[in-house]
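Hi support team,

I submitted a single chain yesterday and got back a structure, but I'm not sure I'm reading the token output correctly. Could someone confirm the output below corresponds to the sequence I sent? I've pasted both exactly as they appear in my results page.

Thanks,
R.
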Amino acid sequence: QLQLVESGGGLVQPGGSLRLSCAVSGFTLNYYAIGWFRQAPGKKREGVSCINSGGSTNYADSVKGRFTISRDNAKNTVYLQMHSLKPEDTAVYYCAADGRPRYCSRYDGDYGYWGQGTQVTVSS
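Hi R., thanks for writing in. Yes, this is the structure output for that exact sequence:
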């Protein structure tokens, strides 16, 4: 059974850092592209970043230069390192898997498998 589990969320002060993890099971990470998405209360889900099987990445303008996506195929885990966090980064963060490994899309409709989400709150 294909499963994605996010972890690493929490409460952080503005300017702080967090690293989110997306642990996958039931499939080989090599064969999937992974995306990170977020949804704040009352807002649409937003594609934050993606990484394909070859390591190509893409970022939303709002996080460029502050967030870094990476993958460790040996550990079947994808990470989202977040620096210089802002209150507007507050949201539930989700990872998702796309069975087309060479794609890197920030469109949520391209992803068929989703984790349960982890809350990130940026507040003083």
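A quick pointer for reading it: DSSP finds no helices and eleven strands in the chain. Let us know if anything else looks off.

Best,
Support desk
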